Amino acid sequence: MGARPTVTEHIADEVAPLVDAMNADERASFADEEQSRRRLRALVEDAAAWGDVEVFGCWSGDELAEAVRTEFVASSWFTEQLTPIEERVRYVVNAR
Predict the structure, then answer these.
(1) Is the pLDDT assigned to residue 35 strictly greater than 60?
(2) Taking Cα atoms as reference points, which of 43, 51, 38 lies closest to residue 78?
(3) What range defines the domain where residue 25 resides?
(4) Has residue 40 been placed in a domain?
(5) Residue/partner pairs of 14-22 with CB below 8 Å, 24 or more apart
(6) Is the dihedral of CA 80, 54, 38, 29 positive or negative?
(7) Are 39 and 31 in contact, with CB atoms under 8 Å apart?
């Protein structure tokens, strides 16, 4: 595995000015979240080569719950914004 990206790589534009104001624990937590979002995006992009991809925001055990709404997003949505994945929302990324 390659070197871990720094916290300032690939972050949402609205956060970049705030990174320097974060303490070390906040920066580490933020970097972990960013890495998680990059991994999710890569997974979605790989799967989209085979067909549409659905990401359903839910807690463990709620996988069969009905979606409250569906949003159609680009795979970049998962890394280019800070809004959390909403509970019981189905995000659809169209196949490439």
Answers:
(1) yes
(2) 38
(3) 16-93
(4) yes
(5) 14/82, 15/82
(6) positive
(7) no
